Amino acid sequence: MSTIKEYIENNKDRFINELVELLKIPSISADSAYKNDMTTMANAIKSSLEKAGCDKVEICETEGYPIVYGEKIIDPKLPTVLVYGHYDVQPPDPLDLWDSAPFEPIIKKTEKHPDGAIFARGACDDKGQLYMHVKALEFMTSNNQLSCNVKFMIEGEEEVGSANLATFVQNNREKLANDVILISDTGMIANDVPSITTGLRGLSYVEVELTGPNRDLHSGLYGGAVANPINILTKMIASLHDDNNHITIPGFYDKVEELSARERAQMAKAPFSLDAYKEALDIDAVYGEKDYSTNERNSIRPTLDVNGIWGGYIGEGAKTVIASKAYAKISMRLVPNQDWEEITQLFKSHFENIAPAGTRVKVTPHHGGQGYVTPIDSVGYKAAAKAYEQTFGKEPIPQRSGGSIPIVSLFEENLKSKTILMGFGLDSDAIHSPNEHFGVWNYLKGIETIPYFYQYFTEMSN
Amino acid sequence: MSTIKEYIENNKDRFINELVELLKIPSISADSAYKNDMTTMANAIKSSLEKAGCDKVEICETEGYPIVYGEKIIDPKLPTVLVYGHYDVQPPDPLDLWDSAPFEPIIKKTEKHPDGAIFARGACDDKGQLYMHVKALEFMTSNNQLSCNVKFMIEGEEEVGSANLATFVQNNREKLANDVILISDTGMIANDVPSITTGLRGLSYVEVELTGPNRDLHSGLYGGAVANPINILTKMIASLHDDNNHITIPGFYDKVEELSARERAQMAKAPFSLDAYKEALDIDAVYGEKDYSTNERNSIRPTLDVNGIWGGYIGEGAKTVIASKAYAKISMRLVPNQDWEEITQLFKSHFENIAPAGTRVKVTPHHGGQGYVTPIDSVGYKAAAKAYEQTFGKEPIPQRSGGSIPIVSLFEENLKSKTILMGFGLDSDAIHSPNEHFGVWNYLKGIETIPYFYQYFTEMSN
């Protein structure tokens, strides 16, 4: 019976090759053109769970893409860990900014990843981080070191709002019953600064359509005389922030939790270099809400960002046209206590409200989710912290993340258990961006750390 | 020897069929994918001029698309008319808004065109209006009624700014020498309200690129902490108009000609129904510069319109991304005395000026041209007015148009002659829009009116 370190040493090439194969499947949930690849991906996850030792694996159909469920119950009296992950990925565009094809994984060394990183869409978010759990399970089952029960729930709609997950969870409370939920879909501060995410932002994602005249018009004959939907849309969107970059939607901040000076001082202790941050993004200045630091702006404060905008002629050359319609995709990151459905409503009424005469506006909610904060005194958090200490040699820092995993609050509500966010990626891994990658060291470190979490969680649960 | 009325009666089906054939050629100058169609189109124009009786026709190469030149000199002592037109068309998109394919012409009756209208991209702008002159020449030559010399200059880059026309005109002043320039590339008020365009707006067309971070970012991890190029671009564009819809670019209005109360009262006499205007566009209100009427806003006042905007994720579904770049195509319609190159510079410096720290802006001028006003006491205008009276039975109304034909001022500067804008299209013909069309009645009326212009112009020139 080998230790996890030995096991990784003997199998790491296979671990990497297996992940590379999964990364070749373009499982893009946002684009229906990839429907078949989504099915291929779900089947690949299913068989990987079977090989890893699950004794019951099934593909559970939903109204959207299926959820892959697997379990290994060694003793009903022992605690149960539920692992959540997602097999879908973000669209790769803009393709021209990738140095290598997004679905032809290659391994390259980088400054932050001297042992090499796997470059591919989904390498970190979330195929790589999800597969760490599969390989950790493989080690535990094949070396008789699984100390408790484990369940896997791997969905295919996380990148498009997990539309069908809630129903699945509500209808399968028994099947999904657990003592702690384990998710690796976040990051850590640095390879030598392990951290555990304790807070997540909520999300409200909407699409807006502004209509002016009933057809595209010649900008010479009509220019200046009718409302130009693009000009108006820019005015409306611009008005959503004031000069201090506060969001102007009435009621938007009503439920925002204000952190105490002490809590903010705590946060400020996390290692952060503004110069390195600006250099990494090649910007000469940061930008954001007045009176808050960069780390606060992207963690404890709500935001409103346009994720996409389009209208009129966007082809080569010039066209002197006034478009009939202009569109934007807008998302708001929310903090704990802000209800995403309420915020979506506030946005909708406000945006409809500010559309001037001569235009018509349509606001279509895409999806959303609640923010979440996890206590650092729970058994799950303490077991995770001890596991990191074991493998990283130092205690992890609790960290608020700006990202959203809407389903975390859904889980707590329906399954009554806490979620531990064990992320092994780095912010610089470019998830959702061209050239997404995941460090080989991080991948293997995750596989090494996870079995200790099972061990300590079982021990501490007694 | 038949009259023009008889000649049209006997040949109108052929006139229509010949135009339909020309409209099948997708001569889109803005998109290099249609290079071959541009060549096909130039050759078609060449042979049509030869068939119409020009005794010298040539395709003149430029650094862009060629200019088709043709002439019929019957007596050097007689006056010479130079006809200008363009064989290129606007891109047809958005394609899904066309009721029939843009390059598969069909004839349909409409409310404004009870005798039917030809639906196709370029039907009115400018293939249909250009071909009226070719058919009028055919009548005059085949019936020995050409009373003066005629020259044709048909270019292929009008819709993309006539980049190479200036050089051609400057290098061919002798060849192009004329007494009056005739252009049908504008409209008239209504079929029972003939009008001649006496004023045109200038144009400055620019493209802007705003760059924030050096790569697309995850909107959760970075949202609120860095300048989002799309949000910033909307702010910058929105700030280009104040609450009264005045343009805020410093110096923009310095040279704008303010019309006298008397001139504005004259303009106000042109028949116009605001209700009909709003109904035709399906808008509940017009929109524009404070203290000016709709007709003034789109004719004697300068404007700034976004013709296209794009950035971030614009595909199906949702992507939580902060784009690295955002773009817009912006055009300004200028009035006489505003210099387009000066305005382009003013825009460029102002726009670069308002880009906040954390972003970089690039402004690329596309093309432009000066505005123009033509006197109504010139021989050319009087001959045209008399020709309209002959065929429409009433005197035409002099009208300022909001559109731009930048080359008109170029002609006056280099060829020292006035331009007469005999437009036979209607504003409702949807030029530059889906379902562009040209009334069969208007097409034939143009062919009928043009020969009288030649006759009266020759008589009045003595």
TrEMBL record, chains A, B:
Question: Which UniProt key words apply to this protein?
Answer: Hydrolase, Metal-binding, Protease
The protein, known as? Dipeptidase
Q: Which source organism does the UniProt entry give?
A: Spongiivirga citrea
Provide one Gene Ontology biological process annotation: proteolysis
Concerning InterPro entries, the annotation shows:
Bact_exopeptidase_dim_dom, Cyt/Met_Dipeptidase, Peptidase_M20, Peptidase_M20_dimer
Alphabetical list of PANTHER family matching this protein: BETA-ALA-HIS DIPEPTIDASE (PTHR43270), SUCCINYL-DIAMINOPIMELATE DESUCCINYLASE (PTHR43270:SF12)
Q: What's one GO MF term for it?
A: peptidase activity
Q: Which Gene3D superfamilies match?
A: 3.30.70.360, Zn peptidases
What are the residue boundaries of the Peptidase M20 dimerisation domain, all occurrences included?
Answer: 199-358
